[in-house]
């Protein structure tokens, strides 16, 4: 039996049983459904490393490091031996080897990469996490492995890179691919996919703000972008079903020194392995 071809613009579907469970919780009480969706929102899916990533996984030097500010351990990957280091940051439910095609080309061009499994991702411990822990991980990795010349982030990793730069992470240039933008939009989209009322999204934001003592909107990428002075390349697909292209355009509009590169038909993940995208990244890194 032949496998059905996957459309790169297909969005990841939320399993039907989760949608049904959410609606049952909502029927019982607003408090219950808010608690349930908060757990869903902060629990990534740990995928097995696919065969295509085995080479990077086997050839990298792997260490577990401690991130004091969040009291968590994360797995790190050092790939290549050049003094010119590039930090790679995966997105939600990703892993440190996910940007392997980009990493391979960087190494061929004389760079080395450091990547990591964010808390509750890949080989790192834990079951739940939020973006602030991605940011804390970046800042700790800079202390232990830096300095870095460049940083590349995908999806939530792109948001995290911009926020880390706002918080003092030092790089010469950054690249964000398929990055999310406004936190409330992300919460709204998540609640809509579960088929729940919009008011649950507001309650979810309030719950996170109370628990973590932060303003969720402060983590929106466009706000961080306003404080980023270095050159930033924003890459986004026009047909990205998970993070609308308006996110990338809005981030670019708020950068002081931004370049926007839009692709067609690559969706949210296939974009990471596209040769034209990788060439654009290399050209941007090498340009004066």
TrEMBL record:
Residues 86-182 form the AB hydrolase-1 domain. Coiled coil: none annotated. One of its GO terms (molecular function) is hydrolase activity. Residues 227-285 form the Peptidase S33 tripeptidyl aminopeptidase-like C-terminal domain. Pfam families: Abhydrolase_4 (PF08386), Abhydrolase_6 (PF12697). Keywords: Hydrolase. The keyword Iron-sulfur does not apply. InterPro entries: AB_hydrolase, AB_hydrolase_1, AB_hydrolase_fold, Pept_S33_TAP-like_C. This is Alpha/beta hydrolase. It comes from Flavobacterium hibernum.
